[in-house]
Design goal:
about 375 residues, globular, 7-stranded mixed beta sheet
Length: about 375
Amino acid sequence: MKKVLAILVVLVMVLGLTSVAFAEEVTKENIKLGFVHISDPSDMGYTYNHDVGTKVMMEAVGLREDQVINKYNVSENPGECGAAINELIDAGCNMIFGTSFGFGDAMLPAAQEHPEIEFCHATGYYAAMYNLPNYHNYFASIYEARYLAGIAAGLKTQTNKLGYVAAFPFAEVISGYTSFYLGAKSVNPDVEMFVMYTNSWNDPTVEAQVAKALIDMGADVISQHSDSTAPATTAETNGVFQVGYNADMIPAAPNASLVSARVDWSKYLIFAVESYLAGEPIPTDWSQGYAEGAVYLSPLNEIIIADGTAEAIKAAEQALLSGELKVFAGPLTDAAGNVVVKEGEYFHEQETESAPSWSFILQGITVIEG
C-alpha cells in the first residue's frame, strides 16, 4: 500500500510539473489576448481605431480570430471593468489590453493578483508609479499630429474662432487641444479657441450639443477629443468645418471634415505581443510619435481645404521630423499671464511616462464652463 501511495505521489508531482511547464510554453499558436474597450467599433472613432490596430496586429503576428477576445462597451467603473477583466482571465488570456484611461483602477489590482499575465494599459500612468514587471502603459505622441492638423484649421477659419469638443479636463486632453491651437496659431496669429468639456469619452448626443454651442459662439472650425463622429456631422449640418480624431471622418461629413489626427495602435500591439512571444521584457512605458509612424494624418479633404494647406503642413512636418520644430516651444504664457515655457526652451511631453502631462491653459484658449 505504501508503494502504491508513493507511486501516486510521484505521478501527481510529475503531472503537476508537466502541467506547469505546458502552461508556461506560450506560442504564436496558443497565445490568447484580451481587450477591454469603453465603446465598440461602431463609434467610428476611438474604439474603431484601436480595433483597426488589433486587426493589423493579428495579421502581422499570424493570429486566428479565436485567439483574441474583445470586451466592448465596458464602463470605467472599477467593479464593471474588473468583472470584464476577470472573464478574460478565466478565458485563459495571457495578455490583457485596457484601452481607456479609467480602466487603470481595475487593471492595477488584477496585475498585482495575477503576475503570470501581462497587463497593458493605454493612456494611464500607474506603470511608472508601481513598477510591476507585468503592468505596462502605452500611448502615442498624438500632439504632434494634432499640431499639423491645427494648421488646416488655422488656414480655413474666417472668423478666427476655433471650437474644441473636449472629453475631460485631463492632461491627455489638454495636451491635445493645446497642440492643435499652437498649430493653428503658427499660420494664423489672430486665431483664438474655445473649449467645452463633455465629461464623457463617448456620448454622441452631448458631443453634438457642445459642438453646436461652440458654433453658436462663432467658431467656424470644430475639432475634438471625443470618441464619435457627432462633432463632424454637427459641423456639416451647420455649414462649418471640422478636424477629426481617431478616424478619417470625411465619409461621415464630406463637406465639413478637413483632416483627422490618428494613432496607429498596431505599432505598439505588434511590438508588445512579439516581445512577449520572444520572452523579451515589455517596457514599463512606451510612446512613439510622428517619426515612427505611430501618429499620422488622414488624407486631406482636397475639395474644401484652404489654398496652401498641404504645403504648410508639409513644411511643418519636415521641421518636426528634423527636430527644428518643437510643439511646446517657448515663449508660452498661460491664461493668467504667467510664462510657463521660456523663450529658447521647450516642454518635453511624455518624457518619463507614456501618458501626456501638459496641463497649462494658454492665452488665446478659453475654457467655457457648464
